[in-house]
Amino acid sequence: MSTVFIAFQATPDARPIVEAILADNPGSVAVENPGMVKVNAEGRLTIHRSSVEERIGRAFDLQELHLHLITISGHLDEDDDQFTLAWRN
Amino acid sequence: MDMKVDKKLSLKDRYRHQTRGLGWETTYQPMDKVFPYDKYEGIKIHDWDQWEDPFRLTMDAYWKYQAEKERKLYAVLDAFNQSHGHLNVTDARYINAIKIFFSAFPMLEYTAHRGFSMAGRQFRGVGTRVACQLQSLDEIRHAQTQIHTASNYNKYYNGMHAFTHQLERMWYMSVPKSFFDDAITGGPFEWMVAIGFSFEYVLTNLVFVPFMSGAAYNGDLGTMTFGFSAQSDEARHMTLGLECIKFMLEQDPDNLPIVQAWIDKWTWRGTRVLALVAAMMDYMLPKRVMSWKEAWEIYFEQNGGALFKDLERYGIKVPDCVAQATVEKEHISHQLWAAMYQWNFGTAFHTWIPSPEELDWLSAKYPNSFDKYYRPRWELWAQMEKEGKRHLNTGLAQLCQVCQYPMIFTEPDDPGKLCHREVDYKQEKYHFCSDHCQHIFEREPEKYVQAWLPMPQFYQGNCGGGGVEEFFKWVHLVPGQDNMDFEGSQDQQNFARWKGMATSNQ
């Protein structure tokens, strides 16, 4: 199984997104570097819109991720409710 | 911040309407005449509708989010400039790293902008064209935001005053310039593999992630912010590059050998270009997030490894050059910084010998190579400086016909011996830094015999005349002020003076 990752700028707006990922993806790990936070997961990682909304208390469009994103790894599958990165090996 | 989009259609539906509903089969002219460039490379596409952009970004969302990114970025830049944030960087030596960055990247981003505009026009598939168009807009945004960030530094520090001019003329700028020129003179599919896949997917993480985190670590808020803002677009570009590879490989089995040859070529071309970044990370950042070798292991070996494992299903093999790149991760930053030190009378930035503490950091990070091959050289050169015999290499280097680096890299199996290959082609001799650059030449010799190599051009009198003084004038370089040692430079003196003014009432 290969590692997928997603990295965000270390900002208040990105923090609830990172919290949602860590809560919803058992085994995922956040690695902090200056100015950024990178979340690694084995094989697969999903961001659920509803989970982010619970944390920020307002409606959230998953495409808002673009504002905070630094990089991703893995194949992406995105719709209105979830954003998933996965390797197929 | 209200980012709510009124949604009448789902994300997938909106994307489908934009990228399918807006295309049509031409009838006044045959499609092959309207799109004459997307078949000659030999890539066979049977159904353009199979193209999917996983981000499914539509125009309205694109403008909305890009505008928001710009507002955030320029608010930070204004604040940084207004408060003289440049005086808060860890050490004025750091500014030399961003001099290299700013003298190369904005113009390369601009070439990428042109390349994606061309690809967007050349592909007949609508989804592909829309993705290329968005990337083309991103690339010009990157060029602009980098120039805006650099312009504040340019007010205070030497060496950044002529970057557009120097891209064409400065000898070491021919390394990144030739990379993009090579890509943009390929066909649209090769361009996608060169820039979209090999550069964006496999390699830009190494530039924008650990290096920008390094900018943050060194107090350079401006560079960190534009870097991460650009990288937020790169995530989309990486997805596009990967999508293009999968698309070609799924469309026809005949595409495999063509795609494999491009991946082999561009992985090596990209790896060579990044040696510049390796030296910046290991030698030019006063505070370091990680070594080049560590960054290489995370972003190339682990991430690139996962990617190639995934592409195995299509028959794609890990490029042969990866074995050499794996050996070289221990060496290239040291070899490149040594080259910059020896030839720094002809650069637009300053160099220095690592401090004793920095030598120890390098020893710890490179236990297999540094003490054995590189520390003794730095200690010797430091001793020579002390004795007033500063080592300069006044001979001009033989350049590689493909990557255009001087012959500064060593044999993969012997770090004590420079690597040099030669090929005879039509009664001329051509020189290469490695087996892989030689193979790239041998596949397309008629392309690479046309390469404009700065050193031979200099000897032919095409760089301002024939002398070094004429070269300086021609390249808009002020010798001694823009280059040579950081110690004693105008930059060093000004930074100390301004920093003193900023922290006292004198």
Describe what is shown at a glance:
The complex is a heterodimer of chains A (89) and B (506). With 89 residues, chain A is α+β, with helices and mostly antiparallel strands.
Describe the structure.
The complex is a heterodimer of chains A (about 90) and B (about 500). Chain A is of the alpha+beta class. Chain A has a single domain (about 5-85), classed as Monooxygenase component MmoB/DmpM (Phenol Hydroxylase P2 Protein, Alpha-Beta Complex). Chain A has 2 helices and 7 strands; from the N terminus they run E-H-E-E-E-H-E-E-E. Chain A has helices spanning about 15-25, 50-55, and strands at about 5-10, 30-35, 35-40, 45-50, 70-75, 75-80, 80-85. In chain A, the strands form 2 sheets. Chain A has a 4-stranded antiparallel sheet with strand order 2-3-1-5, with helices on one face. Chain A has a 3-stranded antiparallel sheet with strand order 4-7-6. In chain A, strand 2 and strand 3 (about 35-40) form a beta hairpin. The longest helix of chain A is centred in the N-terminal third of the chain and has 10 residues, at about 15-25. The model of chain A has no long low-confidence stretch (mean pLDDT about 95). With about 500 residues, chain B is mainly alpha-helical. Chain B has one domain (about 35-505): Ribonucleotide Reductase, subunit A, CATH 1.10.620. Chain B has 22 helices and 4 strands. Chain B has helices spanning about 10-20, 30-35, 60-80, 95-120, 125-155, 165-170, 175-185, 190-210, 210-215, 220-250, 255-275, 275-285, 290-310, 320-330, 330-340, 355-365, 370-385, 435-445, 445-450, 455-460, 470-475, 490-505; strands spanning about 410, 415-420, 420-425, 430. In chain B, the strands form 2 sheets. Chain B has a two-stranded antiparallel ribbon. Chain B has a two-stranded antiparallel ribbon with strand order 3-4. In chain B, helix 5 (about 125-155) runs antiparallel to helix 10 and helix 12 crosses helix 15 (about 330-340). At the A-B interface, strand 1, strand 5 and strand 6 of A face helix 3, helix 9, helix 10 and helix 13 of B.
